[in-house]
Amino acid sequence: MKLEHIQIITDNIGSTTAFYSHTLGLSILEHNKESVSFQAGNSVLQFTENSKFDSIYHFAFNIPENKLEEAIAWCTDKVALIRIEEQNVIANFENWNANAVYFYDNNGNLLEFIARHDLHNSQTEKFSSKSILNISEIGIVTENPLELGNKLRQEHGLEFFNKNDNSELFAAVGDDEGLLIMVKSNRNWYPTQTPSESNPTAISIKNNGAVMELQF
Question: Which fold would CATH assign to domain 2-215?
Answer without folding.
Answer: 2,3-Dihydroxybiphenyl 1,2-Dioxygenase; domain 1 (3.10.180)
